[in-house]
Amino acid sequence: MNKMKILVVEDDISVKNLIVTTLQAHGYQYLSAKDGQEAILEASSHNPDVILLDLGLPDMDGVEIIKKVRSWSNMPIIVVSARSEDSDKIEALDAGADDYLTKPFSVEELLARLRATQRRLSILQNASLSEASSFTNGDLHIDYAAGCAYLKDEELHLTPIEYKLLCLLSRNMGKVLTHKYITQAIWGTCWESDVASLRVFMATLRRKIEPKGSSTRYIQTHIGVGYRMLKVDEES
Length: 236
Hints:
By secondary structure, the protein is α/β, with parallel strands linked by helices. Helices cover 42% and strands 20% of the residues.
């Protein structure tokens, strides 16, 4: 598998050196930027596969960078920030970030997030998800054209909301979707009651695709933030 080209946007020299050294040791190509203006220039000029983005930059907030990049590109953005409040994570994810890693972080976790992003990029490159007629992840199969979902070749009896949730998560596999993003996509609004309903529907959906006794986990909860569909590895 070809290694990705990664743009590291970080003004803290020690953190940048840690990230860059890690990337070099594992064969990744990299570019670096120390502030927002340089980051936007590097992203638009070199089209990296992934951006590792600190939010606290000297010239602009990282969320503004996310919004600017999202105006012209869907390249994955992984936030690496010392801001650990749920509100900060939600703001960045709602602006268009794909993932959020809190400082201090382990090298192993950073590499795992990059591998997950690389798998997602590979899936996106091998199929046009917006036009895909089907989706398969482990024993889970969705026939978008027919409007049906199956687990181990047995049709799942899903409510319309459960099916919409499953399709939304599958089309964004590997990406954290916030409560706001999901409720607006499903109901068109984001009231507190919608978030409460989302939790109920997500619980019933999980019981159907992750039945009692099953070791397979398709949906990961990010407490206070949202949900993510996990890629089921063949060996796990």
